[in-house]
Amino acid sequence: MARFDEVKNLVLSLEGDFEKFYEKSNQAAGTRVRKGMQDLKTLAQEIRSEVQNTKNGAA
After folding, report:
1. Which domain holds residue 44?
2. Largest CA distance in the chain
3. 3-state secondary structure at position 35
4. Nearest Cα to 17, choosing from 33, 38, 2, 6?
């Protein structure tokens, strides 16, 4: 569950930047959103690999 918490914390940490970008058109916040989304993509891929390895190891 620690990995799930990492995902939640990352998404929640981006909330303010999403608001600034979409509601106030703050371009710097958009850059932070893009970086955060890239980090989320990387984290998701790591978790996918862990799940696959665990699944294959258990089968």
Report:
1. 2-49
2. 50
3. helix
4. 33
Query: Within a domain: residue 55?
Result: no
Query: Which residue in the block uniquely carries the two structure tokens 């918490």?
Result: 5
Question: Measured at the alpha carbon of residue 52, what is the angle toward residues 14 and 35, in degrees to the nearest 5?
Answer: 20
Total tally of structural domains belonging to the chain: 1
Which residue type, as a one-letter code, is found at position 21? F
**Residue of 53, 24, 20, 48 lying closest to 36 (CA atoms):** 20
Per residue in 12-58, pLDDT tens? 999 999 999 999 999 999 999 999 999 999 999 999 999 999 999 86
The pTM assigned to this predicted structure is 0.84
On whether residue 54 sits in a domain, the answer given is: no
